[in-house]
């Protein structure tokens, strides 16, 4: 038997129920993992509320974790019991153990602790996708990063600095601004008021070629207004609510802008992409280029409190559960 957090319907944090369940048996192509640490992400909240639908109810939430292989199903050749592993995009993570398709898992280097892996797999590979795949940023460019003190935001600041890119970080408080600055943001803007005017001043009127916006509804139009002609708006989160009712004419009148809503699952659909992105991420952590900040740690039983903290937008860095 093992403990897991399940939902039987959509709603607030109260729908997250700690239950004792039979230990799963890995099927063909699957492995069973004893989880040492589990990531908590906004996508978990989207699934809990029903903004994103789970395949079936009841369901175990959680997309990210790290641990040790307990058993391997038929046909699995890449992993065996005792191997250290991590994964970024597989529903079912809020539990002491879990089964998962082996091709969605990567080997975890011995130099990277389980908690760091659980705090960086989804967020770090999201940063990789944004900076290296959605649009490959170039040295000397200036970019705008919302929620710059969050789990993804801090990694974006560090990684962009490593690539020679100037980051303007947008945060909600002075304290978060100082954290983002310590992690590579060259300039800090607190709040979203008059955002375009402040970006115009920092860029001598040039504006920025790309905006990375995880906030959503509250900042969408302001983000568009920060872009240079033919700039790219990357909307990759809905922390303030889903962006709806967008007129494509807004893109034309603001300078023939581009808009994308990338999903990490699509970018990692091929195992080769998952392995390559993970290797680059792990290498930069081991080299000390990237530092993963675990800002909040909760017990598995306190998953509701963890999600509430994340929703409050009062967290910094990554949030994890410890089984």
TrEMBL record:
<keyword id="KW-0521">NADP</keyword>
<dbReference type="InterPro" id="IPR002364">
    <property type="entry name" value="Quin_OxRdtase/zeta-crystal_CS"/>
</dbReference>
<keyword id="KW-0560">Oxidoreductase</keyword>
<dbReference type="InterPro" id="IPR047618">
    <property type="entry name" value="QOR-like"/>
</dbReference>
<dbReference type="InterPro" id="IPR020843">
    <property type="entry name" value="ER"/>
</dbReference>
<dbReference type="GO" id="GO:0005829">
    <property type="term" value="C:cytosol"/>
</dbReference>
<dbReference type="GO" id="GO:0035925">
    <property type="term" value="F:mRNA 3'-UTR AU-rich region binding"/>
</dbReference>
<feature type="domain" description="Enoyl reductase (ER)">
    <location>
        <begin position="11"/>
        <end position="321"/>
    </location>
</feature>
<dbReference type="GO" id="GO:0003960">
    <property type="term" value="F:quinone reductase (NADPH) activity"/>
</dbReference>
<dbReference type="GO" id="GO:0070402">
    <property type="term" value="F:NADPH binding"/>
</dbReference>
<dbReference type="InterPro" id="IPR036291">
    <property type="entry name" value="NAD(P)-bd_dom_sf"/>
</dbReference>
<dbReference type="Pfam" id="PF08240">
    <property type="entry name" value="ADH_N"/>
</dbReference>
<protein>
    <submittedName>
        <fullName>Quinone oxidoreductase</fullName>
    </submittedName>
</protein>
<dbReference type="InterPro" id="IPR013154">
    <property type="entry name" value="ADH-like_N"/>
</dbReference>
<dbReference type="GO" id="GO:0008270">
    <property type="term" value="F:zinc ion binding"/>
</dbReference>
<dbReference type="Pfam" id="PF00107">
    <property type="entry name" value="ADH_zinc_N"/>
</dbReference>
<dbReference type="InterPro" id="IPR011032">
    <property type="entry name" value="GroES-like_sf"/>
</dbReference>
<dbReference type="InterPro" id="IPR013149">
    <property type="entry name" value="ADH-like_C"/>
</dbReference>
């Amino acid at each position: 038997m093992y403990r897991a957090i399940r939902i039987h319907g959509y709603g607030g944090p109260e729908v997250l129920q700690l239950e004792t369940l039979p230990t799963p048996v890995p099927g063909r192509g699957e492995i069973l993992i004893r989880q040492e640490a589990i990531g908590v992400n906004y996508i978990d909240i989207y699934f809990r509320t029903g903004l994103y639908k789970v395949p079936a109810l009841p369901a175990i939430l959680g997309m990210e974790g790290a641990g040790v292989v307990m058993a391997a199903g038929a046909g699995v050749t890449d992993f065996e019991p005792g191997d250290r592993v991590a994964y970024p995009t597989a529903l079912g993570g809020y539990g002491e153990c879990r089964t998962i398709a082996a091709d969605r898992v990567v080997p975890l280097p011995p130099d990277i602790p389980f908690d760091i892996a659980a705090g960086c797999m989804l967020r770090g590979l999201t940063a990789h996708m944004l900076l290296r795949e959605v649009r490959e940023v170039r040295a000397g460019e200036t970019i705008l990063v919302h929620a710059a003190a969050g789990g993804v935001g801090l990694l974006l600041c560090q990684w962009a600095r490593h690539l020679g890119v100037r980051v303007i970080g947008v945060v909600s408080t002075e304290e978060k601004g100082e954290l983002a600055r310590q992690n590579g943001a060259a300039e800090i803007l607190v709040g979203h008021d008059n955002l375009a005017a402040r970006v115009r001043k920092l860029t001598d009127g040039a504006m920025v070629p790309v905006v990375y916006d995880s906030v959503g509804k509250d900042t969408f139009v302001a983000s568009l207004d920060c872009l240079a002609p033919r700039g790219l708006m990357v909307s990759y989160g809905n922390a303030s609510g889903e962006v709806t009712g967008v007129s494509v004419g807004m893109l034309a009148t603001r300078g023939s802008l581009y808009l994308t809503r990338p999903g990490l699952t699509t970018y990692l659909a091929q195992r080769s992409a998952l392995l390559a992105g993970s290797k680059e991420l792990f290498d930069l952590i081991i080299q000390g280029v990237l530092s993963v900040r675990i800002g909040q740690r909760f017990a598995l039983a306190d998953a509701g409190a963890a999600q509430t903290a994340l929703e409050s937008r009062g967290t910094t860095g990554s949030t994890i559960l410890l089984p």
